[in-house]
Each structure stands twice: as structure tokens, then as C-alpha cells.
Amino acid sequence: MNILVVGSGGREHAICTAFRRSQKTEGLFCAPGNAGIGAVATCVNIAADDVNSLADFAAANNIGLTFVGGEVSLALGIVDEFERRGLRVIGPKAAGAQLESSKAFAKGFMARHGIPTAKFTVSHSADFAILELESGDFGGPDSSVVVKADGLAAGKGVVVASGRAAAVEAINGLAETVGSAAADKIVLEECLVGREVSLLVFSDGANFALMPPVRDHKRIGEGDTGPNTGGMGTVSDDAILSAAELTDIVERIVKPTLHACKREDINFRGILFFGLMLTANGPMVLEYNVRFGDPETQSILVRLETDFVDICEAMLSGDLSKLDIKWTKGSSACVILASEGYPGKARTGDIINGLQEAAQVANVAVFHAGTARDAAGNVVTSGGRVLGVTAVGVSLDAALASAYEAVSKISWTGMQFRKDIGK
After folding, report:
1. Which of 155, 149, 201, 144 is CA-nearest to residue 176?
2. What is the tens place of the pLDDT at every residue in 265-282?
3. CATH architecture assignment, domain 2-94
4. CA distance 378 to 128
5. Under CATH, to which class is 195-322 assigned?
6. CA atoms within 13 A of residue 411's CA, in its CB half-sphere
């Protein structure tokens, strides 16, 4: 089967690698791909948001399955267009993609269906958001408040503000940070306290299958300091959630969410990501994503034993409940290497050294996120998050040791990473 993966980051590199392991994969293409993806798939120079050109390519190249990596393509209705043309594709339609593309829609969805989440309000301007803040509904002047842009913001649209003054500053700066379209509505949320965890599921619209739980490290600085990023590293370990906690999340959040999708005529077929906070009052939803996370995907898919093509076929046919999906025992860890300046304006064009040496470390995969090749053929930085150095191990400590050993082999001017992933 010929397969097309849409996207260009570390997530898509991990997805392509999972497809490449399948004997059922014949031609493997990635649009637009990156320097690392080019080693496992044929990169196609079509942007991920060029929906019509992607559909034209799939039709012309006998693509039997398209897997959409990122949220922008889904929000633009790539699945709607592919299905209109009779092309097989994994992902929710635009109606389902609203669970991620609009924070206001997602919060309203949770409120309508009794899915536990933080207290919130939605404002249509910065001025009204500040008035809501000053009403006292989110505590006193020293209370922490979460400020969110309504639209897609590449992981930069959320600010956890420590006090009212910081929240006002975040509200006023949101449009400049993420763009006026993403900040057209502003969501204010009660700041939840607890342990954060991510849980992803495969869904065929009626049935679901759990993936191993993951813990993400969002902030740029060690000790969870500094601004939020798209993610500076993840760990996957079965001990992240106890059996009782997992059951509670499934019964209170996962099943009600998928049932609510059906009630709202959303046939959710693809990957549903639950960003959760485990509070004293039980698990609550921080956010939905409607696709694999990045870098959660890297930590998850290196543990996948079942043929990835079989999982995709089961999602398309509605037979997910018949498939026993297997995962390796133990743990995994992904450490993100980022460019100087990230999560602000990132420096690019620097030659990356040590990639071959890092890849030779046992149990390690180096996934490319923001890379390209220069005129001389060197792999260079081309974005903020550049590499996801990922390892598996019999324990979390073993996986982290291997990942950081590989990190020590890699260098470029201004490279930055957190040394406390998994701690």
C-alpha cells in the first residue's frame, strides 16, 4: 500500500518510522517532510495546509491511506475534502477538529456534556476579558489564572499567569504573541492544581483503544520555569497512572467525550488526545487535541509493537475493538533539542553535528522536527524545536540515561535543552 503522511515535524518523523516498520507499507510519502524524514520516506514539496494539492497528489499516486499529522490541516477540513473525493484518510472532519481549533468550543462542549474541567469564561475582546478578571470570579489579585487564545497557536497560546497583574499583561499581549485571528476570543480559566498527564486514544468513531500514558514538560526552563513551549520533552511509563486512576479517567472523561461526539453528530475517527490534571477532586480536562501530540508521539510510537497499518485499517473499518494492540514493557523518554531564541524568534541555519554518533547509541531514535539541508548537503536547523532524541529502556531511568547519552553527542551553535526531563 502507498501511504501519505501530512506534516513536517518530529511527530511526523515518528509516524513515518512506524509505518516503515510495517511490511504492508510499499511507497511511503511525506508532505512536506524534513531532512530526517527523507531517510525513511519520499518527501513531497506540498505544504500541509494546501488541502487541494494534497488530495490531487493522493489521487494521482494511488495513495491507499493518508495520515494527517497536524491540527492545522484538520481544522482546514482536509478529511472532509479527502472523503469527498473517495480517498481514505485518518483524522476527524473539521467539525470534530473544533475540539482543538477552538478553545471556546471545547470548553462549551465539556460544559454541555458534564465533562469535568476548570471553571471558565469566554470573552470576545481583551477589554471584556479584563472586566471578567476584575469581577473576582477567578479569585483575588494574587490568584493564578490561565489565559488562553481561542484559536490554534502552535503551543504558544496558553499563559499561566501568577496573579491579576500578570493575567492582564498576558491578555493584552496575546494578539501580538499568537496573532489576532487566534486571539479573536479569549478564554480565562481557573488554575487547577495537581499532577498533569496526557492520555491518547485511537478511535474508530464507536470504539477506542488506549495508548500508554505520557507526561509532558511544557516550559522552556528546568524546574518548569519560563514560558510555555510546544513541549521540551516527554516520558512514557506505565507507572504514571495507577489502574484505579486510569479507570476513573476512562469512565469520567474518555467514554463521556466520545459519547458526546456521537450526540453532536461528530464521527470522531482518528487520534484523540486528553490533556489532564489529576486534582484532589478527580481528573479534569485541560485541553483536547485531535491528533498525536508532539513530542508525545515520539515517546509513544517507539513502544508500539502492533503493525501501525493494521491499527489504521481498524480505525477506518470500525473494527478497533477486534484488535489487541501491543506495547513494549518498560519506559521511553524524549528530550527536545531546540534552537537559540526558542520559544521566541529562533535562530536557524546552523549545521548540526553528531547525528550519526547519537543514532549509534543503543535503544535510541533521533527524530527530526525543524531540520533542512543546506546547499552543501549538511543537515541544518530550520525551526525552534529541532530534534527529539528518544530512547526506550527497561525502566524510566534507563530510557533517560540512553536519551541523554545520545544528546551529549549532538551540538550546534546555541542548542538548548532541559536536563530534567522525567524528574
Report:
1. 149
2. 999 999 999 999 999 999
3. 3-Layer(aba) Sandwich (3.40)
4. 50
5. alpha beta
6. 3
- Helix 126-134 and helix 164-178, axial crossing angle in degrees, nearest 10: 160
Q: Which CATH superfamily is domain 331-407 in?
A: Phosphoribosylglycinamide synthetase, C-terminal domain (3.90.600.10)
What SS3 class is residue 265?
Answer: coil
| Number of helical (H) and strand (E) elements in the chain, helices listed first | 14, 22
Distance CA 19, CA 13 (A): 10
> Same fold for the domain at 2-94 and the one at 125-184?
no
Give the cell for residue 272: 484523540
Specify whether domain 125-184 bears CATH 3.30.1490.
yes
Provide the CA 133 distance to its chain's centre, in angstroms. 29
Report d(CA 420, CA 235) in Å as an integer. 11
Q: Which of 140, 190, 186, 122 is nearest to 160 (CA)?
A: 190
Amino acid code (one letter) for 132: E
> What are the backbone dihedrals phi and psi of residue 224, each rounded to the nearest 5 degrees, phi first?
55, 55
pLDDT digits (tens, 9 = 90+) for 377-416: 999 999 999 999 999 999 999 999 999 999 999 999 999 9
